Amino acid sequence: QICSQHNAGAPHSKQAFHRMAQSEFSLDHEISWFVLPSYWAKIIVGLISCMCFANSYDGDFVFDDSEAIINNKDLRTETPLGDLWHHDFWGGKLSSNTSHKSYRPLTVLTFRINYLFAGGFHPVGFHVINIILHCAISVLMVDVFSILLGGLQYSSKGRRLNLAPKASLLATSLFAVHPVHTECVIPDQYKEGNHFSILWVLASVLLGAIAMLCKEQGITVLGLNAVFDALVINKLNILELIQKVLHKGKSLENVGLFKKGLLFRITLLLSGGATMLCMRWRIMGTGPPAFTEVDNPASFADSLFVRAINYNYYYSLNAWLLLCPWWLCFDWSMGCIPLIKSVSDWRIIALAALWFCLIGLICQALCSQDSHKRRILTLGLGFLIIPFLPASNLFFRVGFVVAERVIYLPSIGYCMLLTYGFSLLSKQAKKKKMLAAAVLGILFINVLRCVIRSNQWRSEEQLFRSALSVCPLNAKVHYNVGKNLADKGNQTAAIKYYREAVRLNPKYVHAMNNLGNILKERNELQEAEGLLSLAVQIQPDFAAAWMNLGIVQNSLRRFEEAEQSYWTAIKHRKKYPDCYYNLGRLYADLNRHIDALNAWRNATVLKPEHSLAWNNMIILLDNTGNLAQAEAVGREALELIPNDHSLMFSLANVLGKSQKYKESEALFLKAIKANPNAASYHGNLAVLYHRWGNLDLAKKHYEVSLKLDPAAPGTKENYSLLKRKLEQLQKKGDV
């Protein structure tokens, strides 16, 4: 079939093509692996990739999902679609100094569509889409690997030939089941087209721009396309090109750089990439993001030597995760990887091993006499290195040490190199079946690891606890375990992990803030004040810590200091409804009623659904005899939050005092229907009936209230008064 092609006008083309095709086929010829039709290969790859991650489909939103999805206002319908183009990935303004500048509007748009179709924040839809996307990409990689490993050749009928069916199936299987992919979210993909058409190059630039609007790594697709164009389509010999450049007298035309418009296409790709970077820089507005030392300690080292050594150590760790993806962690910052500060550190061996392997591969890729070997190794290294460049710290500081998600695309290069290495072993091995069995064993272990890891990502508790054994020195891991325990009400255990987080990182202000909150609730006010004071001393613009410090100072009856702390919090966070609410409570305690009402009104303006602020306004106006104003505020609140039973209860009390018994009764009954076990609801409805003269109904609800809460304040006395009145009425009736 391969030899049947011919090219009119080239008398020896048939023979030349035959030799080239046999060379391209050599990789597949050496591999002891399965040969399957393309459609069966794709079905199997799709099934195993689905099997690896299917058990996470009904997991919770975990870790960053809370900020990227649940708390991201850009997903809600009330946010104009146009805002997505001015906000970062987390829903914050790109122009803000606190923004991480993660500009991914198309990814956020997909979240928003998912949210709309799911009818709310239901994680199943999000997880299923991710699993489907990974399966689809894995299936597409069958064709991609067949081109990368076997070359791009066509039959006489114009159909692309699959010259490496075994190698492409093996490489795709390794890619589909790699455990490091567990953390990834909506990776980007691309397709190749006819190399003779400038339109395809422009389409590639456009798709690269779209990819970059999904994830920053998307721009590296242009670099990969340039490498593919040069090596696969134009079969450029890089070593020969370098030699020609060094010997200026020799012509460059014969090495293929100017053939078929390669230089022009690469110039187009570079121009497109430069334009995209300039536009992104303008969109970012205030320059690069401001990260902290705990995010990326090496980038803050004073010594260039320390920075270089540690960056290279991070590269070796990424390589190790590709090679042995057993130790996986959701976060590698905050002391997880201590800095290398001296050449005597034994971890220097990892750097030496990495560069020994890379230099060896580069030499083989450049100097090998086998053009097929040069092409595969160069493509493998290109796919390994180019997509990793944005995470390398070479061009700008990144906000992480190691991130498993950024090696999704580099794993393509790794799988190519591993497949090529397997072909070399197969060529030398006498027991090929045993070698194939070993590769099957690796695939099985990876599938098992994927299943285990995706199960850990089903819930925050499992995810955070799994990290304790991988990164025991990571303060953020202990913080997240503590936060998860606190959310579940286990404060004693949470305190233990928060204390460990602060011990590991004495400047961890968020751990101090959360620990101070728990101690405040346990009435350990002195220690809570010390922790919160230290937090705001370390980070003076930490608004939440200032507010919590104000709450503690209020509890200690140091009202002036508390007021000052609240106003400092508001100074650093202008739109802070919870702080205005707490400030209102302080003013209420000081009988500064007008100030309290103004503070609560500010809270409701900033957050119209702030039920506690509305309630306190109604109660304060009620207690001060301003029933008409209390009623107006109550009605306004219920228009905004119509299903809030606490607001129904507060307004019902006001209406009852205004002798609007029928309307008051309706609200009490509606509140009780929403929360039937609230003793105070039944007790106050009983008081309404008592005033109204419906004594039997009053008796019934007094009894329900006392059954729910025998110590309900005032209910016993009111019930006793009612019973005496009923006895008197009964005596009169008997007379």
From TrEMBL:
Q: Which pathway does UniProt place it in?
A: Protein modification; protein glycosylation
Transmembrane region positions? 106-125, 131-151, 193-214, 221-242, 262-279, 317-340, 346-367, 379-400, 406-425, 434-452
Query: Is Transmembrane helix there in the keyword field?
Result: yes
Main location class: endoplasmic reticulum
Q: What are the subcellular locations of this protein?
A: Endoplasmic reticulum; Membrane
Q: What is its EC number?
A: 2.4.1.109
Sorted alphabetically, the Gene Ontology BP terms of this entry are: endoplasmic reticulum unfolded protein response
- Provide the topology term for how it sits in the membrane: Multi-pass membrane protein
Q: Where are the TPR repeats?
A: 475-508, 509-542, 577-610, 679-712
Its family remark reads:
Belongs to the TMTC family.
Q: Does the keyword Transferase apply?
A: yes
SMART domains reported in the protein's UniProt record: TPR
Keywords of this entry: Endoplasmic reticulum, Membrane, Repeat, TPR repeat, Transferase, Transmembrane, Transmembrane helix
InterPro entries with a match to the protein in the record: O-mannosyl-transferase_TMTC, TMTC_DUF1736, TPR-like_helical_dom_sf, TPR_rpt
Q: Which Pfam families match?
A: TMTC_DUF1736, TPR_11, TPR_16
Domain DUF1736 as annotated: residue spans:
287-359
This one is known as dolichyl-phosphate-mannose--protein mannosyltransferase
GO-annotated molecular function: dolichyl-phosphate-mannose-protein mannosyltransferase activity
In the UniProt record, which is one GO cellular component term? membrane
